[in-house]
Write a structure and sequence with these properties.
This protein is α/β, with parallel strands linked by helices. The protein has 14 helices and 16 strands. The chain has 3 domains: 220 residues, 3-Layer(aba) Sandwich (Isopropylmalate Dehydrogenase); 121 residues; 39 residues, no CATH class. α1 crosses α10 and α12 packs across α14. Bound molecules: NADP nicotinamide-adenine-dinucleotide phosphate and magnesium ion (MG). Magnesium ion (MG) binds next to α9.
């Protein structure tokens, strides 16, 4: 069999622990035998980030800017325990935070659906993709406790020294709490652009929601920027693609989403996205079935699994025990990236291979062969629970039938 051809390399970003083990297995069993795999490799394993003073993370982000498509393995975000475990020079920042800051992207999280795992919300037939604005609001908030009687004010001083001020609250002796937060027009516009572009790419309706009735300037600005960009830049393209842009108040959106069949992209402000993505992930089944893609306003893509490095399984693996770790989200990061690379380079065979590999993995689970995390959720009576390696071997058998 002739291997599927690639032209431009994928930016391959390796990571840590159990997902690093799965990463290698996926390449060995499901990619190398079938594709003339071209990648530019960046090792974001914690040891190598430490050795390079985290320069490798910056280099990886710049490579995605250069080539346009990357695929990333889960990585450790160091904390005090990890500093000790890996004898780190310092507590390096979250690699995903660094990548997001350089690419200025929006994160889209989409669940992988299989027939034998029913969402907890019984009407949801199609995935709900959450787009979370990843900048500002309470995540860059400034807050404190007030002491004693007094007035809290918000002041803006322009570069000529002129002040605009507004009273927040007159506190009595008991005091209270105050917070100030911000966002920028630029970041909101980037967010909107990523959402409109992604919706067009996926050919799915785009929903957006805020609390503009209460927050008449802050949230209203989000709503207005989306509306203005839609009218001026995207309306025609959306109509041509047969998709809809739909804005509604966040409370109404929640009610409508629960009653819906799914199938839309739901753009959320930073906090709403944080909360709603965990709700949606849980309702669809398992974190191990949740994929994630960072899309920059320039149209650069970085694919990954939404879950972490599955540390607990890795320690079992190190002791020589077999683990039953689910590789679906990591595998779909690869197929997503290969398909996007195929689209950008006009390589139909590469797109077809990505489709078939996804199909093979779905058929495997739907025929009853799955890892332990899914077995706990499945509605099937006859389940064949397999370990991490066997699961990929079973997918390979299905894939070979399709090729
Ligand atoms: P985690 O790796 O997502 O795992 C939490 C638990 O969820 C696991 O112990 C396992 O449950 C279950 N799980 C997650 N993925 C699974 C899979 N593919 N197959 C089967 N079960 C799965 O989260 P964590 O343990 O809190 O974090 C570990 C490390 O990951 C941390 O150092 C954190 O910094 C990092 N992290 C990285 C990313 C990223 O790179 N995007 C995201 C989140 C966390 P059981 O143990 O019950 O089987
Ligand atoms: Mg959250």
């Amino acid at each position: 069999m002739q291997k599927v051809r690639m032209v431009t390399p994928l930016v391959e970003i390796d990571g840590d622990e159990m997902t690093r083990i799965l990463w290698q297995m996926i390449k060995d069993k499901l990619l190398y035998p079938y594709i003339d795999l071209k990648t530019e490799y960046y090792d974001l394993g914690l040891k190598h980030r430490d050795d390079t003073d985290d320069q490798v993370t910056v280099d990886a982000a710049n490579a995605i800017k250069k080539y346009g498509v990357g695929v990333k393995c889960a990585t450790i975000t160091p904390d005090a325990a990890r500093i000790k475990e890996y004898q780190l020079k310092k507590m390096w920042k979250s690699p995903n935070g660094t990548l997001r800051a350089i690419l200025d992207g929006t994160v889209f999280r989409a669940p992988i659906l299989v027939k034998n795992i029913k969402p907890l919300v019984s009407g949801w037939d199609e995935p709900i993709i959450i787009a979370r604005h990843a900048y500002g609001d309470i995540y860059k908030g400034v807050e404190f406790q007030t002491k004693g009687k007094g007035k809290a004010e918000m002041v803006f001083t322009d570069d000529q020294g002129r002040e605009t001020r507004q009273t927040i609250h007159e506190f009595d002796q008991e005091g209270g709490i105050v917070m100030s937060m911000h966002n920028t027009h630029k970041s909101i516009r980037s967010f909107a652009k990523s959402c409109f572009e992604y919706a067009l790419g996926e050919k799915k309706d785009l929903w957006f929601s805020t609390k503009q009735t209460i927050s008449k300037t802050y949230d209203h600005t989000f709503m207005d920027i989306f509306a203005e960009m839609y009218e001026n830049e995207y309306k025609d393209a959306f109509e041509k693609a047969g998709i809809e842009y739909f804005y509604t108040l966040i409370d109404d959106a929640v009610a409508r989403i629960i009653r819906s069949k799914g199938g839309m992209i739901w753009a959320c402000k930073n906090y709403d996205g944080d909360v709603m993505s965990d709700m949606v992930a849980t309702a669809f089944g398992s974190l191990a079935m949740m994929t994630s893609v960072l899309v920059s306003p320039e149209g650069h893509y970085e694919y990954e699994a939404a879950h972490g490095t599955v540390q607990r399984h890795y320690y079992k693996h190190l002791k020589g025990e077999k683990t039953s770790t689910n590789s679906m989200a990591t595998l779909f990061a690869w197929t997503g990236a290969l398909r996007k690379r195929g689209e950008k380079d006009h390589l139909e065979d590469l797109c077809t291979f990505a489709d078939k590999l996804e199909k093979a993995s779905l058929v495997t689970i739907e025929n009853g062969t799955m890892t332990k995390d899914l077995a706990l959720l499945s509605t099937d009576d006859n389940i064949n629970i397999v370990n991490s390696e066997e699961f990929l071997d079973e997918i390979k058998i299905e894939l070979d039938k399709m090729l």
